């Protein structure tokens, strides 16, 4: 599914990743953990075609060294990769429905599917509400509902439970495991020890 071979990534004079290699198998649930500044989000962004290493090779679904914003990368992101951003990447002045439709771009539009996805994250009656009217925890769950709607093989998530209370955190745990059972590959960045305990594999990055 993902093969990373001896990549190095620097920002200015700071080395974030050096000669780093990693393999992630299809249908696995992998957590990337480690202290702040260890390169967790950078590594996730490289996997998600939002950044490139300075050197080394990255292979995603048998395609090697795709360039961000290229046609091939855009096709990969649209058809195969779902990304849950730490800041949720929602449009606050638009409705929840508008934000969910983004995940279904290029596919048949279904309001029933949106309502079902919102029910799965515990927000059954929120479709017509504006995002800015929602709490941080609600916005995080809207972003996860959008992820449920997006056709993809690989799910990348940066701190998916960071804004949630205990009850909703375990709701999201169950959804992630369900997605894995449906054949999806999950790569999650988190500090949450409970989520780390759910993973098949844990990658710990040092500063």
UniProtKB/TrEMBL annotation:
<dbReference type="GO" id="GO:0005886">
    <property type="term" value="C:plasma membrane"/>
</dbReference>
<keyword id="KW-0067">ATP-binding</keyword>
<dbReference type="Pfam" id="PF00005">
    <property type="entry name" value="ABC_tran"/>
</dbReference>
<dbReference type="GO" id="GO:0016887">
    <property type="term" value="F:ATP hydrolysis activity"/>
</dbReference>
<dbReference type="InterPro" id="IPR017871">
    <property type="entry name" value="ABC_transporter-like_CS"/>
</dbReference>
<dbReference type="InterPro" id="IPR003593">
    <property type="entry name" value="AAA+_ATPase"/>
</dbReference>
<protein>
    <submittedName>
        <fullName>ATP-binding cassette domain-containing protein</fullName>
    </submittedName>
</protein>
<dbReference type="InterPro" id="IPR027417">
    <property type="entry name" value="P-loop_NTPase"/>
</dbReference>
<dbReference type="InterPro" id="IPR003439">
    <property type="entry name" value="ABC_transporter-like_ATP-bd"/>
</dbReference>
<dbReference type="InterPro" id="IPR015854">
    <property type="entry name" value="ABC_transpr_LolD-like"/>
</dbReference>
<feature type="domain" description="ABC transporter">
    <location>
        <begin position="2"/>
        <end position="207"/>
    </location>
</feature>
<keyword id="KW-0547">Nucleotide-binding</keyword>
<dbReference type="GO" id="GO:0022857">
    <property type="term" value="F:transmembrane transporter activity"/>
</dbReference>
<dbReference type="GO" id="GO:0005524">
    <property type="term" value="F:ATP binding"/>
</dbReference>
